[in-house]
Amino acid sequence: MAKIDLSNISHSYNPNDPNPVYALNPFSMTWENGNRYAILGPSGCGKTTMLNIVSGLVRPSAGRILFDDKDVTDLKTEDRNIAQVFQFPVIYNTMTVYENLAFPLKCRDFSKSKTDERVNSVAETLNLKSFLNSPARKLTADQKQLISLGRGLVREDVAAVLMDEPLTVIDPDLKFRLRRNLKEINEQYKTTLVYVTHDQNEAMTFADNIIVMSEGEVVQTGSPKELFERPNTTFVGYFIGSPAMNLFESEVSSNDSVKINNNLIKTRTNLSNIKTKNIKLGIRSEFIKIAQNQNENLINVNVEKVEDLGNYKLITAKMGNFTIKSKVTRETEIPNQNVKLHIPAEKCCVYEDNKLI
Amino acid sequence: MNKLYIFLKYFFIVVWTVFVVAPFLWALTTSFKDFQSVNGGVTYIPWVDFEPNLEGWKVLIKSPAKGGVDIIEPYFNSLFVTCTASLISIILGTLSAYALSRYTFKAGFVKNNDITFFFISQRIMPPIVLSIPFFLFLSSINLLDSLTGLIVVYIVLLMPIAVWIMVDFFNKVPREIDETALIDGCNPYQAFLKVVLPNSIPGLIVAGMFCIIFGWIDFFFAFILTFTEVQLLPVKIVALNSSVTPWWSLSASALVSVAPLIIVAFIVERYLSKGNLSGAIK
C-alpha cells in the first residue's frame, strides 16, 4: 500500500517526431493510500496509458512517479510491487487455478503456509475455492477473469491494484457482486484500487474519487457528487449523468443572470468578468421540475414526449430550438402541451468557452 | 440427404485411407519377398501368393563383407545428427523468435520483419547454391566428413524454420501474458521461461516436428559433405541400389527409415489434439 504521486506526467508514443502526438498531456495528481479511484473517459482518451505508466509497462516521456515519496519512474515493473488486471482475462494456461493465484507469491518467495493462506482467502472471496485444483484453461471467461483479479488481490502489501475495465467479460449479476466485493476488500485491507472504465455507472458506484479524461487530458477530478453537480467542463456535464446535462447557448443579461430564448434565468454565478460571447448554461435534468408556485427562473416549454422509465418519468420538451430534458417522479401529472418548468438558480452552472465559471 | 452425406463421408475416408496405407502395405509385403516373388508376376498375400522370407531385412544388418549394407551405424548417426541439430535449432530459433516478436530492432531500413525474412530467405535458395560455400567452410575448419560438421550445417538449415514458425506463434501469444508475469514479479527472463514458453509448447512441437522431418530426410548435404568416415541413413539407402534393383531390401529400409517419423507424428498428434492451442486470453 502506498501513496502514489504522478508529477507533471506526459506521454507520447512518438516523442522523437518533430510534431509528437501526446497520448497524455501533462498532469499532476496524487492517489491517497487506501482510496478507490475510477478513471473514466471514452475509448482512446489515455486511460490505459496512464495505468501502464503507473505499473511501469510504459515509461512516461516526461514527469516523475513517486510511491510513498520514493521516485519509481525508472524502476522496472517487477520491482514496483503493483498489481494490474487487464480488460480480457489473462491466465497462465498451463497452470491450475491454485498455481495461477499463487504465482505472484511464488515469484516473491513467500512461504508455503503463507501462500496457502492467501490463496485460500482470495479464492473464498472470489468463489473459486471449488476450482482450485482444476486446470485454469478449462474455466469460463468470467471465471478466468476472477483468476486475473485474484492474482491482483493475493498480495496484501501491493502498492495499488490497477484494473483496466476488468468486468467487461463478466455477467451483469456477477459484476454487481464483484464491485461490492472489491469495495469490501478495499475497506478491509485498505488497498488502493484504481479502476479504469468508460461506464459512468460503474465509476460512480465503485469509486470515491473519479478522474475524468478526454483526449489525453485530465478534465476533472472529484467525488461522484461533485462531478454530477458541478461539472468543470461541458464535456464532463455531457459525459456524466443519464440523460446528459442540459446545455443551452445563452447571453449574459446581468451580473448574475443569463437569457435563454428571451427567458431570464438567475444563477448564483458572478458573471461580471465574462469576456467572450460563448456562454452556455448547464443544468441537470434531475433539478428541472414542473413549476409550482415559483415566480422566477421559469421557462415555457412544449412537451414533446414523456417516457416512463420505471422509477421516474423523463420529459422531453422544446423551447424554441432548444431541447430540454427533465426527470420527474412517476406520480407527477404532466399536462399535454404547454408546461412551465422551474430552473433552480443554485443548481445552474455557467460555462464560458466550455469551462465552468 | 443426411444418409447420402454419411455415405460420401465414409466413401472418401476409405478412398483416402487406401491411398495413404497402400504404399506401406506394398512396402511391407515386398520387404518379405525374394527375387523370384518380385519378378515372377503380381503377388500380394504371404504364404498364399508367395513364401515370405527375411532376406530383405537381413541385408540391412549384415556387414558389407557378408554381402549386406549394415545400416545400423548410419541409422544412429542420422538419429544423433537430426536430434542434436533440431534441439539446438529449436533453442536458438525460439530465443531469436521471442526477441523478434517482442522487441523492436532497427538498423537503417532493416526492421523486425526484414530480419525474419532474412532467416527464411536461407531456405528459399536452392540447396545447390549453398553446397559449395558449405563444403569450403567445413573444409576450412576441418569438419568435412564429420558428425559435428553435419550438425553445424543442419543447424543453419533448420533454424530458419524454427524462427519462422515461432515468430508467428509468439505474435499470437498476447503481450499481456508477458506483462502480467512482469507485474506478478518475474524478470523478463523468468517471464519467458515460466510463462511464455509453457504456453508455447504447441508451437515448439510443430517447429520441432518440421526440424526433425527436414533433418531426417535430407540426402543432398549428407551426400556432399560426408565420404567414408561418417554416413547418414539416406545416403546408405541409396547405396543399396545396384544394377538389379533390390526391391525387398529397399522396401525394408524405407520402412525402417520412416518409422521414427511415424512415431513423432503419433506423439505430436496426441499433443495437438489435447486443445493446448486454445488461447490463454479470453
Multimeric organization? heterodimer
What's the alpha carbon Rg of chain B, rounded to whole Å?
24 Å
The CATH class of the largest domain in chain A, by name, is: Alpha Beta
Largest sheet strand order of chain A: 6-7-8-3-9-10
> Whole-number radius of gyration of chain A?
24 Å
Tell me the name of the CATH homologous superfamily of chain B.
MetI-like
Mean pLDDT across the residues of chain A is 88
Average pLDDT taken over every residue of chain B: 88
CATH class of chain B: Mainly Alpha
Distance between the termini of chain B: 38 Å
Morphology call of chain A: globular
Unreliable parts of chain A: none
Report strand order across the widest sheet of chain B: 1-2
Could you say which structural class the secondary elements and strand pairing of chain A correspond to?
Answer: alpha+beta
Structural summary, described in words:
The complex is a heterodimer of chains A (357) and B (282). With 357 residues, chain A is of the alpha+beta class. Chain A is 24% helix and 32% strand. Chain A is built from eight helices and 21 strands. Chain A has a six-stranded mixed sheet, with helices on both faces. Chain A has a six-stranded antiparallel sheet with strand order 13-12-11-14-20-21. Chain A has a five-stranded antiparallel sheet with strand order 15-19-16-17-18, with no helix packed on it. In chain A, a hairpin with a 2-residue loop joins strand 20 and strand 21. Chain A is globular. The model of chain A has no long low-confidence stretch (mean pLDDT 88). Chain B is mainly alpha-helical and 282 residues long. Chain B has one domain: MetI-like (MetI-like fold). Chain B has a two-stranded antiparallel sheet. In chain B, a hairpin with a 2-residue loop joins strand 1 and strand 2. Chain B is globular, with a radius of gyration of 24 Å. Chain B starts with a helix and ends in a 10-residue tail after the last helix. The chains are: A alpha+beta (357), B mainly alpha (282).
